[in-house]
Amino acid sequence: MNGFGRYLDYLVIKEGKKYYIEDEGQRIPLEGEDLQEKKQVKAFIYKDHGHKLKATTKEPKITLGEIRPLRVVSATKIGAFVDIGLERDVLCPFTEQVYPLKEGTIQLFYLYIDKSDRLALTTKIKDHLKGNKDLQVGDSVTGVVYHHKKDLGYFVAVNYMYDGLIPNKEAKGVYVIGEEVKARVIFTHEDGKLTLTTKDSVKNRLEKDSQTLLTLLKRKKGVLEIGDKSSPEKIYAETKLSKKAFKRAAGRLYKNRMVEISNYSIKLLKK
How far apart are CA 158 and CA 194, in angstroms? Predict the structure, then answer.
């Protein structure tokens, strides 16, 4: 059946007081609001608790072949039932769970048709992510964390389509499975996979660090007792910046003729 598990356009058919749609010659009962005969509507075909085909005009949270974040409704002996936005929840079997699913948690799922011709979900989404052909180095992206390896980093589904990795050294914080992250592409691989970072670009970090240093100088009446030869510990205690970040920020202020730098002090110049 072409429309099973998909949200497609159909023409409403009325027989007596009931409404239907037709998919590949088969009439399927339709539920929805403001239904009118011969009106075109978008509908989603699924199976009810009796495994009979039904259609609804209500848009689901996921359709066949898609990856989306969904909430686990309950964890049972046969697997976890997941809310897809319809009257019937969909099963994610134990064999399709990368991690044991818990009630109330949010996880990325892929919707497929199982061997019994029923809609089912899996958290094993890696094989269903595509190779990137659109994104370039420097592009900003949104993704959802779907796996974590301590020795590698965080695996991310970028735009719910592409496979990305945030290496540990490029992670700005600690992320949990199912968390949405904002990132930047720093490398595109030949196989279409992406290497990402959630850290600010050097340019943005420099701007922020320079502003931090300038604000501190103004608070300290224009003088900080740290300079090029000060220890990293003393610089961090005064500014909460690494020595490398401090020297970059001080250098920028110096280039803009805003400060005077010595071995053990930095002074704000009077305009």
Answer: 9
Q: How far is CA 257 from CA 248, 250, 268, in A?
A: 14, 10, 9
**What single letter denotes the amino acid at residue 157?**
A
Place of tokens 């071995």: 263
Helix ranges (H only) for 128-231 are: 202-219
CA 143/CA 35 separation, integer angstroms: 37
Instruction: Tell me which amino acid residue 240 is.
Output: K
Q: Which of 127, 121, 126 is nearest to 144 (CA)?
A: 126
Block means of pLDDT (10 residues each) for the chain, length 271 residues? 89 91 92 89 89 93 95 93 94 93 93 94 93 90 92 94 94 89 92 91 74 88 90 89 86 88 88 64
Rounded Cα–Cα distance for residues 112 and 93 (Å):
12
d(CA 119, CA 65): 11
DSSP helix, strand, coil percent of the chain (3-state; round to 5):
20, 40, 45
Cβ proximity of 169 and 156 under 8 Å? no
